[in-house]
Amino acid sequence: MTQDQCKTAVLAIIADIAPDEDLSDIKPDVRLRDQIDLDSMDFLDIVMELRKRHGIEVPEADYGQLASLDSCAEYLTPKFNALTAKS
Amino acid sequence: MNTRAHYDVAILGAGMSGLAAGIRAAHFGRRVCIFERHNAPGGLNSFYSIAGRKYDVGLHAVTNFPREGARPGPLVRLLRQLRIRREEFALCPQRQSRIAFGPRGEESLRFTNDFAVFEAEVARRFPAQIDGFRRLAQLVRDTVYSTDAAPVSARSVVRRHVSDPLLEEMLMCPLLMYGSATENDMDFGQFALLFEAVLLEGFARPLEGVRPILRVLVERYRAAGGERRMKCGVRRIVARAGRVAALVLDSGEEITADEVLSSIGAPETAALVADPESQAGNPRSPHFEGVAKAGTITFVETVSVLDCQPSELGWGDDTIVFFNDSARLDYARPEAQVDPRSGVICLPNNFEYGPGRSLPEGMLRVTCLANYDGWAGLPEETYRADKSRWFAEVQRSAQRFLPTLDEAALAAATVATDMFTPRTVEKFTGHFGGAIYGSAAKNPTGETSLSNLHLCGSDQGMLGIVGAMLSGIAMANRHVLQRA
Question: Taking the model in full, what pTM does it have?
Answer without folding.
Answer: 0.94
